Amino acid sequence: MLVLPKKLTHDEASACTHMLKQGLAGQTGSVTVVDASALDQFDSSALAVLLECRRDASAAGRSFAVKGLPARLRELASLYGVAGLLPAAP
């Protein structure tokens, strides 16, 4: 499972994307799950990071899900029309 940091704003987005790409490269299996439950300070950059991770997982032939997406970030995803691209992990 890939884990997001406590803070993910524009300033951290590039480093976080890089970290997730490295984590994806080391994964096996058919599902990529990102744990977002630690997030408590974020902006729309967090959505961009998650969507990039989803694209990378898809390119690797894996499905994608997010565990513990904060309600405020889920609302932001709905506002931007991308909530359906960030399914909740079982």
What does this structure look like?
This protein has three helices and five strands, in the order E-E-H-E-E-H-E-H. It has a three-stranded parallel sheet. The longest helix has 16 residues, at 10-25. It is α/β, with parallel strands linked by helices and 90 residues long. Helix 1 runs parallel beside helix 2. It has a single domain (2-85), classed as STAS domain (Transcription Regulator spoIIAA, 2-Layer Sandwich), CATH 3.30.750.24. The protein is globular, with a radius of gyration of 12 Å. The model has no long low-confidence stretch (mean pLDDT 96).
As a whole number of angstroms, the C-alpha radius of gyration is 12 Å
Helix content: 40-55%
Principal-axis shape equals globular
Q: Which strands sit side by side, in order, in the main sheet?
A: 1-3-5
CATH architecture: 2-Layer Sandwich
| SS summary, helix count | 3
What structural class do the secondary elements suggest? alpha/beta
At the fold tier of CATH, the topology name is Transcription Regulator spoIIAA
Give the N-terminus to C-terminus distance in angstroms. Answer: 13 Å
